[in-house]
Amino acid sequence: MSRTATYQPGLAWFAALGSAWVFVLVALGAFTTTIGAGMAFADWPLSNGSINPHGWLEEIDKFAEHSHRLSGTMMGLITLILAGWLHRREERAWLRRLGWWALGIVVVQGLFGGTRVLFDRVHVPGFEMSFGQMLRIPHGVLAHVYVCMLFAIAAGLSRPWIENTVGTASPLVRRLGWWCVALLLVQLTIAATMRHNYAGLAIPVFPWSTAGGDLLPATWDYRVVLHFAHRVMAVLIGLGVAAYGHFLIRDRGLSPLLRRTSLLLVGLVALQIYLGAQIIWTGRSVNTTTGHVIIGALTLATTFVVAFFTQRDSMEPTQP
Question: Label partner for 1 (CA 20 to 30 A): which of 152, 172, 192, 256?
Fold first, then answer.
């Protein structure tokens, strides 16, 4: 079967649906962590020695963890099919490589998740967290890289990309887009570290850092540092995305649809900041905290795919 760079609806839609399914996985992972259900089952890859463990549909902690494992398995199968499909039908080497990289990452993610369970009781001298608990942080960070890879594949297979209808971005817009992506990746790394060090309420008031209205916290420890860094990064991201949105919507070289995504980006960041405030005000409500994680991943993915589309001409200058 010959490879082709023409628009392939089946492959394009499969990649798009895979990019949507990943948010089911993110949502279940966020919910599992929020309610502290990561060790609902002490074995892996099975759950209590079964793929259908007793009580997992009745007990919320077991439901959260086992659903996360099942959705992860489904994500692995989707990625395997996608990588194989790209290898057989796609002529662009960079897209084929992305498919295999995505498959490699989803395998590593599965191993991180399993090792986290199996090594939960392995103590690391000098640290409060066990070795298994430490693995939650790279597991959370790598998940966001994986999401970006899926969105890059879906973008490269889309009709606007193939038919080159996205337009040409200015150098400033291209640079600002990648700066925003970098800021978001740093923020999500801080967030994962903060979340798994139980620092979400290390500063229990908002928008100030003390009940008396001080900008800086009255006392410091590593949890307060993580939490305060998260707030500082939120300010930087808000300013960065506002600037990016301003120049993006004014870039006449881009298609109207791509320019209007600036409104979506600004709206997502505003919603994310609001949810972060609600976490403090509600004492870390489960629904709000889970939503904050999901919107954070969606904000990164949306910013990344917009920035990726603005690079289209430089990546495939000879494509029609």
Answer: 152
pLDDT tens for 150-171 read 999 999 999 999 998 999 999 9
Q: What is the pLDDT of residue 319?
A: 45
**pTM: predicted TM-score of the whole model, two decimal places:** 0.92
- Over residues 41-79, the pLDDT tens digits come to 999 999 999 999 999 999 999 999 999 999 999 999 999
Q: What are φ and ψ of residue 50, in 5° steps?
A: -145, 155
* Segment 195-228, tens digit of pLDDT: 999 999 999 999 999 999 999 999 999 999 999 9
**The two three-digit tokens of residue 232, written as one number:** 């500082």
Residue pair 295/277 in contact (Cβ under 8 Å)? The answer is: no
List of residues 6+ apart from 309 with CB closer than 8 A: 155, 160, 161, 166, 258
User: How buried is residue 318: exposed, middle or buried, by Cβ count under 10 Å (0-12/13-18/19+)?
Assistant: exposed
pLDDT above 70: residue 304? yes
Mean pLDDT of 314-320: 61
Token representation of residue 255: 């298609």
